[in-house]
Amino acid sequence: MAESQTPHIAILTSPGMGHLIPLVEFAKRLVHQHCFTVSFVIPTYYSPSKPQKSTLDSLPTSIYHSFLPPADLSDLPEDSKIETTISLTVSRSLSFLRDALKSLVAKTKLVALVVDLFGTDAFDVAREFDVSPYIFFPSTAMTLSLFLYLPKLDQMVSCEYRDMLELVRIPGCITIHGKELLDPTQERRNDAYKWLIHHSKRHRLAEGIMVNSFVELEAGAINVLQEKEPSNPPVQSVGPLVIIDPTRKFDGWDCLKWLDDQPHASVLYVSFGSGGTLSYNQINELAGSRVGNE
Fold first, then answer.
1. Domains plus CATH for the chain?
2. pTM for the complete prediction?
3. Catalytic residue flag (residue 8)
């Protein structure tokens, strides 16, 4: 491992690829721009996938990684939502994480543990080693603002959010209908919602939050998040964090040929993340509403 006096950061990421990709780019920035060394510690509940392995194996030599032993989720109902599965995987891997951090403390100058939005249960383990806990929020600043506001909203509203008559006023964001809130918030009796509330409350225990967005895109939300609130940790926008591989060739892609033929600034790019899917009708509805608003 690298020089023991170099500040070292441990990153605990959720299982799967969705949060790993921006965290990998964040780790590269920490290494190349701030001279840290980094170790990824990855909880699992299944065998690591080939994309995970290839992504991690391609990292610079100053970024290390290890997979924790699989968590036992045999008692989990088959219809459990992904938020529940991920949260339980992390919480049931804390003993393995403790061993990993103990090893890092012995070998490196470990200064921080960075987790994603579902990793807040790891804060207690970080405190055992006097390691500062931070959150990397891989989604938008608006979603982070909702996360921090969710405990208050939960107390204020008694019905299902989709049944609300009043609009939801997320700090720093546009008002939206309750039915437009995140999918796991729509069934408040479901364990997935309970886990969201659990993590949103624990976000305040972090010493800081890095959000994968930037002021030019979400000025309102980021400005409100960066206002000093006694109950909220400092928030820093660090986005956009996207895969940048100068060796990758895109020649011959029909979609890029089509894009090159379009007038400048005439195309709107919309991403729904690695788990987002839309039906044919929904895509047409989205395109039609955009054209109608021009």
1. 8-145+190-237 (3.40.50.2000), 254-288 (no CATH)
2. 0.86
3. no
